[in-house]
Amino acid sequence: MNPKISDFGMAKFFKKDELEANTNRIVGTYGYVPPEYVKKGIYSTKYDVYSFGVLLLQIISGKRNSSLYGCHENLNFLEYAYELWKLGRGAEFFDASLDDSSSSCKLITCMQLALLCVQENPADRPSMVEVFTILKNKNSVVISVPKQPAYSTTRDERKDIGRKKVFSVNDASITQVEPR
C-alpha cells in the first residue's frame, strides 16, 4: 500500500482564481492522467478528481490499474469496475479483506463515487468538495449515476449510431486527397 502517484502535485500550479490551464508537455503517472490532459494538454481542478477516483478504486479492490480483467481479460481496470457496478455485482470487485456485512453499502458508495470521479467529461466529475461531502455524509447525499468511464474501449451501442466507420487498423493513418 505505497502509492507512487505524483499527479496530485499538479494542483499547486493553480493560481487562486484559476480553474484550468494548458501545459506544454504531458507529465503524470500512466493510468492516473485524465483524458482531457492526454488529448489536449488541459489540466484543471478535475485532474486531481480523476486521479483520486482511480486511487479509490484501487484501494477498495486491491487491484492494479495496469492489468486487464473480466472473464475474457479484455476490460481495463475502469471498465471492469464499471461493468461490475452496472450489473449490481460490485461486491466481486472489492478486496476480500475489506468486505464484511456492515461495510458492503459503504464500499458500493465508494465505488459509485470513484466511478463518478473517472468520467470522460470533466463536467460530469464531482469537485473535491463534493467528494468530501459524499464521503462524510454518506446517508444524506444523493449520488449521481456514473456513465461509461474514461478510456473505455467498449461503448454503448446507442453512442455508436451515426458515427463514421474508421478503416484503419490502428487509427494512426489517414489518407488525404489534397497534398499537405
TrEMBL record:
* Source taxon at top rank: Eukaryota
Read off the InterPro entries from this record: Kinase-like_dom_sf, Prot_kinase_dom
Q: Which parts of the sequence belong to the Protein kinase domain?
A: 1-142
What keywords would UniProt list here?
Answer: Kinase, Receptor, Transferase
Report a single Gene Ontology molecular function.
Answer: protein kinase activity
Give one Pfam hit by family name. Pkinase
This protein's name = Cysteine-rich receptor-like protein kinase 10
